[in-house]
Amino acid sequence: MRFSVNKDAFQKGVAQAERIAGKHLSLPVLHCVLILAQGKEVVLRATNLDLGLEVRIPAQVEEDGVAAVPAATLGSFLGATPNADMLTMKSEDKHIVITTPKTEIKVPVNNHEDFPLLPPAPTNELFSVKASEFAAALRSVWWAASTTSIKPELSSVYIFANGSELTCVATDSFRLAEKRFTGKASESFEGVLIPLKNVAEVIRHIENADSAIVVRGDGHQIGIEVDGSYISSRIIDGVFPDYQQIIPKEFGSQATLLKQDMLDALKQSRIFSDQFNKVSAKFDADENTITLKTINPTTGESVVTLEGDVTGESLELNFNYAYWSDPLQSIKTDRIAIEFAGAGKPARIRSVGDQSFTYIVMPMNR
């Protein structure tokens, strides 16, 4: 194997592969990026058996070949070699030699025959969408998924078609985030569950692309191709809860206020919250105020009063401050609405002026 390639393009591809390369004790070759030189391009492959990646980079290939190179070593070298436009890589015994105008390194390689084959790319089209909008939708909800694997369907982001829209939704059973966005689903698309641990890498892979993408699937995986690279993710074989049943049909009380005011109040309340992150809130319809109170035996206590527009019945409840601050990152307008169906029932937090994002959260017991 021998080829020359643009260093920046090669480094970008290796960085993508390094994030996916697995730390697998029984299969050390998964620490590697598989480099294939063929024709007029270099192909980089990486997998952790849950995610797969293939990146194609134009190159001047003098001799076809393949090598499995430790991803961390290769990535560290490229990051420490800023002043190079091109680099040359060649095979030499059981090593690869990388040469730039000022440096040369020799790195031992693994047996490339041990590198697992990536599953064939699925051909069944599930839906098409603008890449940046899909990334934004995933980012709007993924933090609400469960971080445990006891129920895999809850440790996932569920994507399904809803009429002329697509919807991403995630829940850990205490809270739920839903984001609707524009896309075109195939008639056969019945929804997919992407594991939470794979969602972050899918977002990174597509968020900077300006083009539309087609998401394909085969019942076991989804695949996305964008800007010369391809990423695949295992999907969960399970059924997402019928969450529409837990959303109250009517809300008797509502408070509207500035999102930044609530963020600032929650930041202060966090300092004085207890081990359960409890915040006690009073929504006063007579005074049009929202009062947040926290008490911690060690750090002290805090009372913050916010101005807002409170309609319906006055209400007092307790909540986890993190469960109320998290959704605010997904709301892009200046004002928010907090709606209540009554004491002990779920509350809804949404944007004022944008109906595409909905957040449902349970109150804390007293």
Feature tags:
alpha+beta; DNA Polymerase III, Chain A, domain 2; 13-stranded antiparallel sheet; 17% helix; 9-stranded antiparallel sheet; 366 residues; 6 helices
Explain what the structure shows.
α1 packs antiparallel against α2. The protein is elongated. The chain has 366 residues and is α+β, with helices and mostly antiparallel strands. The longest helix is centred in the N-terminal third of the chain and has 14 residues, at 7-20. The model has no long low-confidence stretch (mean pLDDT 94). It folds into 3 domains: 2-114, DNA Polymerase III, Chain A, domain 2, CATH 3.10.150.10; 124-244, DNA Polymerase III, subunit A, domain 2 (DNA Polymerase III, Chain A, domain 2, Roll), CATH 3.10.150; 247-361, Roll (DNA Polymerase III, Chain A, domain 2), CATH 3.10.150.10. The protein contains 6 helices and 26 strands. The strands form 3 sheets. Strands 1, 2, 3, 4, 5, 6, 7, 8, 9, 13, 15, 16 and 17 form a 13-stranded antiparallel beta sheet that branches. It has helices spanning 7-20, 71-79, 131-141, 196-206, 259-271, 321-325; strands spanning 2-6, 32-38, 41-47, 51-63, 65-70, 86-92, 95-99, 104-108, 124-130, 156-162, 165-171, 175-182, 184-185, 192-195, 212-217, 221-226, 229-234, 253-258, 278-284, 289-296, 300-307, 309-311, 315-320, 335-340, 347-351, 357-361. β7 (95-99) and β8 form a beta hairpin. Helices cover 17% and strands 44% of the residues.
